[in-house]
Automatic annotation (TrEMBL):
Coiled coil recorded as keyword: yes
Matches recorded under InterPro entries: Dilute_dom, Vascular_dev_regulator
Species this chain originates from: Triticum turgidum subsp. durum (Durum wheat)
Keywords for this protein: Coiled coil
Parts forming coiled coils: 4-192, 221-388, 438-528
Biased composition annotated in UniProt, kind: Low complexity: 624-642
All residue ranges annotated as the Dilute domain in the record: 757-1060
Protein name stated in the entry: Dilute domain-containing protein
Annotated stretches, region: Disordered: 624-690
Amino acid sequence: MKQLADAQVEIVELQRNLEGADKRNSLLQDSLQRLDEESTARDALLVAEKQEKEVTKKTLTEALDRIEELVKELECANNSMHQLQDSIQRLEQSASAREAVLLTEHQEKDAKSKALAEAEVRIDGLLEEISSANINIDLLQKTMKRLEKDAMTRESLLLKTKQSYDDTITELFEAQERNQQLTSKIEDSDNKIGLLEVSVKRLEESTSVMDSQLAIERHENSKLRSELSDARLRIDELLNEAQDNHASLAERDDMIKRLEENVSTKETLLLTEREQNASTSKLLAEEQLKIAELIKNIEEAHRKSDSLQTTIERLEEDGTAKDVLLLTEKQAHEATRKTLVEAQERNEELLKKIHDDDKNILQLQFTIQRLEENKATKENLLLREREQNDATTKVQIESQERSEELLKKFVDVDRKIDLLQDSIERLGESSTTKDALLLSERQEKDAMKKELAEAGERNGELLMKIEDTNEKIEHLQNTIIKLEEDIAAKDVSLEAARQENDSIRKSLTEAQERNEELLRKISDNEYRIHLLQDTVQKIQVDAISRLSSFVMEKQDSDVAKRALTEAQERNEDLLKRNEDLLNRNDDLIKKIEESGKVITHLQESLQRIEGKAANLEAENHVLRQQATATPPSTAKSPPSRSKITRIHRSPENGHVLNGELRQAEMRPSAGMSEATPPVGNAPNSSNQKDFEHGEKLQRVLNQKHQPQQPQDDQQWLLTCIPQYLGFSGSKPVATLLIYQCLLHWRSFEAMKTGVFDRILHAINSAIEAEHDVRTLAYWLSNLSALTVLLQRSFKTTRTALSTPQRRRFSSERTFHTSQTSNAGLAYLGGQSVVGATGLPQVEAKYPALLFKQQLVDLIEKVYGMISDSVKKELNPLLELCIQDPRTSHSNLAKSNTNGLGQQNQLAHWLSIVKVIANYLDVLKANHVPSILVHKLFVQIFSLIDVQLFNRLLLRRECCSFSNGEYVKAGLAELKHWSDNATREFAGSAWEALKHIRQAVDFLVISLKPMRTLREIRADVCQALSIQQLERIVGMYLDDVNGSNTISAEFASSLKAAAREEANTVTTFSILLDDDSSIPFSLDDITKTMPTIEMADDDLLPFVRENPGFAFLLQRGE
């Protein structure tokens, strides 16, 4: 492929050289005709110059070296000779007129006395000019020899060109075969496209069948939900009537069995639908693969058609004038075949020389214009002088005839000198050395004109030299005749080559027509493929939405299954609890009977203790009187007495404090012995056993009484959760209520509890009951605040908090018994430790940690529902925003002058801004954390970027200048909205639109032909890949200015970069993917959310309306 490309580049250069050679050939033919005319005139002059031939030979040998240098310079100047031939003819005429003017001027000056002397002086000058003419003749001979050599080389080059023509003909046949292959491939692609259309129709039919099946499933799911709601109601009734209604359990078991049968049937339906979805997804994947293969085939067809077009264009240029190019520029042709680099360097040098020659030509044209003006003035002078010349004498006429003959020779010589000087001037302007040579030659010419006055004495010698020159001219004429015959033969060969070129051109035109037909077919195929891609994308979007709905329904069915299993488990638990309650009732009855016996025993023991206490008091009174120096014994008696009286008083009145029981439970058995005196140890130990027995009895009564009150409170909480409770400042009331209740019930520290599941179920039902954005934003705020409260309240260990309290408790117990009892009650009664955030620190158990994780899952679910809601509203608007609704430039002008029309054109963009602004207002009104709002809008703007950019790449009519201005105006509206929104909420959302912004900037950028690929990628399209930029450039249309889109250098560098990227990257896609992942974590929310301060005023209005939650305020007091 590289060799073909190099050959094609060489062929293009050869075609250009052939065109220049054709022009040069025509100029050479004109010059040969002039030479024929000049040779007839020279025959008469050379007869008189034969005698001077011997003298001129010496001067010719000296001038040979100089002529060789001039010939080399003339070869370089031949490119500009064909443009100056006409001007040279005019100069010759003007020179002859100028010489006549000079003659007439000399005749006027020396009309009578000095005419003969001046004629002799002129003859001397003519002799010198004839010597220079001899030099020029030698130059002509050398040029003739060079022409003969060139003729030989041209013949060899003609053979080579014929071979190259044969090669080009074979390449043409190969190109025709490739065109036939392309046509067959395009026909195959048409057949494949037809098959694709049929498959797309089948997919649409299958999707319609899936829709009907999904509708049936939804109906069945609604039935399931209704049945589940009935089952839940029945389960609630079971919870209330579980103690008394054992007979109804059998009926509910039957209902559960029916529900299980319904669930099994629905599971079979779901399995069948899964299989159908799997088959449709496989079909979609196969169709996508086929479409990708079609796109690759069409791209290859595009590349091949482009290569064919380039080869055809090059062959057309080749068929114009190869022969003449090969004749004139053999060295350049051989150099281009050797290496491309040398050819490019030579071309650059030739371009520079051509620019210099153009400058010289312009100067010569100015000089020619001046000469023509001088000629007109001198013609007027000649008319006047002719009237004066009529009065001259016959003697002057004879001398004038001789001088006129010499002047004619001088004119010829002067014309040749002028030609050489013009060529020398053209070549000499490029260097200072040539300028110096031209100045010296002009000085010599002026000196020769001055020496004409001294040429009278040399007339005889001139006549001899003229005879010699006539012989040379005859020889030259013979050589010119031979050359004309050779040129005629070559013209015949050139005509044959031209006929071959004409035939090649005809075949090329036919190939071009075929290529145009192929291009039309390819464009039609591209349009069909774009349509198919759009339909496939729509089908994919529909399939994804249906799959998502199927997944949601599947999740609902899974939730229903879980609810059924949970209901079954709860029923089993209820049955077990009923049996346990019955057993506990029997045990309690037995324990109450035993406790009656224990109470009577305790009363007896208390009476004994009172008697002993009276005895002890008497003994103590005696001891105080006798031993006044023993204060420790007296110090121990009051605490022990108070202790005994407290224990004696509590069973008698029937009011045992919960804290005291727990305090007694935590004390070791040695604690009682510390508080009592050593006297009477046996009764004290029996009293301790009686007290422990009463303590167990009170604990049993407390276990029976405690679950009733939290159960009622939980029911109140579950009824309040689905209601809209509002906000206290920026704090959600529902979050504070749930958190305070769970703290009060110590649910976070419980190893097993069902309150978390009930709360989650209530929140789920509240979310699913209403799918509007306000409800979702309200619950997103509540769930985020509740999760952050749990995250900041939970701790990992409690040793750091519990150990100092226990140490303080044990140290104070020795000296201050009453203080220790109050401290123990405060600690064990629910006073938790406060952390650094102002929240109580709790050691959470597994159910609480699981509850926190489920809250995080709920946050992600609600966030996804809000995101899906935004996408559903934006997708139809984005479909309308990618293309300008205006259809003509008149509408464009009208809409630009009318501001109301511009608002109408941007109506879809303004509706997008309105949707986004409404969502922001709803989220701010519900105090959703700023990080979630920020992430949501970044994701929304990313969706806008993906949708608009992909549609721009897939639709050719969208890649125009006017459409780019329309999309840019719409993006400006989004930019205005993001600037007005605070950075806390909008943030870096504008950066997510980088792909569509950079693509639109490229569409509307000015001076595209003046920009390079590096500038475009560095300043405009930093985020776009080479493949994406190539796609946009290929589809771009300037429908306003109609100018060229890009420069040739930009196109070549873009293709080279695309090739490099295709070689390095194995798999790539020009389309963007939509990122629907969750872009945040719990740590992000916790770090960014401010501290939530707990105050009683937050729940005070709610508690006033709901007195059942008064325990929260009591706890706070």
